[in-house]
Amino acid sequence: MIKVGIVGGTGYTGVELLRLLARHPEVKLTAVTSRKEEGMPVAEMYPSLRGWVDIAFSDPAKADLKQCDVVFFATPNGIAMSQAQALLDAGVKVIDLAADYRIKDVSTWEHWYGMQHASPGLIAEAVYGLPEINREQIRQARLIANPGCYPTAVQLGFLPLIEAGIIDTSHLIADCKSGVSGAGRKAEVHALFAEAGDNFKAYGVAGHRHLPEIRQGLARVAGHEVGLTFVPHLTPLIRGIHATLYARLNKPADIQALYEQRYANEQFVDVLPAGSHPETRSVRGANVCRIAVHQPQGGDTVVILSVIDNLVKGAAGQALQNMNILFGLDERAGLDVVPLLP
Predict the structure, then answer these.
(1) CA 174, chain centre distance (Å)
(2) Which residue numbers delimit the Semialdehyde dehydrogenase NAD-binding domain (predicted)?
(3) Taking CA atoms, which of 14, 68, 90, 297 is between 20 and 30 Å from 261?
(4) Number of C-beta neighbours around residue 176 at 10 A
(5) Distance from C-alpha of 230 to C-alpha of 226, rounded to nearest angstrom
(6) How far is the first Cα of the chain from the last one, in angstroms, to the nearest whole number?
(7) What percent of the chain clears pLDDT 90, i.e. is strictly above it?
(8) Between 1.25.40.10, 3.30.460.10, 3.30.360.10, 3.40.190.10, what CATH number should domain 150-310 receive?
């Protein structure tokens, strides 16, 4: 059994990770930390886990995380970077669900996240955990930077077009919508029901933290810098991301066949039949990205529709998928979940 620890188990990403790990056949949950909730049974905070998770939150300073095989950081940005090195030195694998190791350029990271990086020496070693691109590197990793939710939906959507070299990568557009759980489990005015309910708005148009992560990922595939306009929106949903992506073709191609072939062997990317319009509710609770491709009026503009559950394929599910790869397990272990409907 794989001994698993979770640092920061009280947020939405943490409870989603617990939900998935609780039914994983090869996992023994060893520690779930929270300074504030030390001693409280996890199932007392999250009754949905009654009968599935029977341990209590522990103080991270007292939890023996070095006895784990892998530790997940489901924490705010800036926490993993101060604790990862000690765990790696003890032979523990680390999967960070925050952004501490996603961006390779330290100065870029510090600019967007507004703090000094505590362990810049680990950034080069960290493997970006998007399995559909980096599966072989993930197998050999000690430290995995789990991708962000928007970056997952956008990169999976654009990936086949960029790999094929058939679009103008200087003018890409990502028009994205997210549910409020993406903001985390904290009290903020914009996420109050009376503020977010029955409302729809763009935010971060001048610049969002996920922009450099998306650009970095797409540039690696393209082999050069890309031009990307990324506009996120907040919707009155709890879960879900819908990314509408636009690109201009520079040569004719069978786009539907391209996507079907690229993702034919990917268990967690579902290319829908031509003419489809994926819905966020079709992926609720599941570790899957559903994609549909369109070429309106047969013109040279390609429209890609990409939907994920921001807490699963956009966070905890992808982290578990990375753990399965890391330990040589079936990638579906713990993730063979049917989406919830309605």
Answers:
(1) 17
(2) 3-141
(3) 297
(4) 23
(5) 12
(6) 35
(7) 92
(8) 3.30.360.10
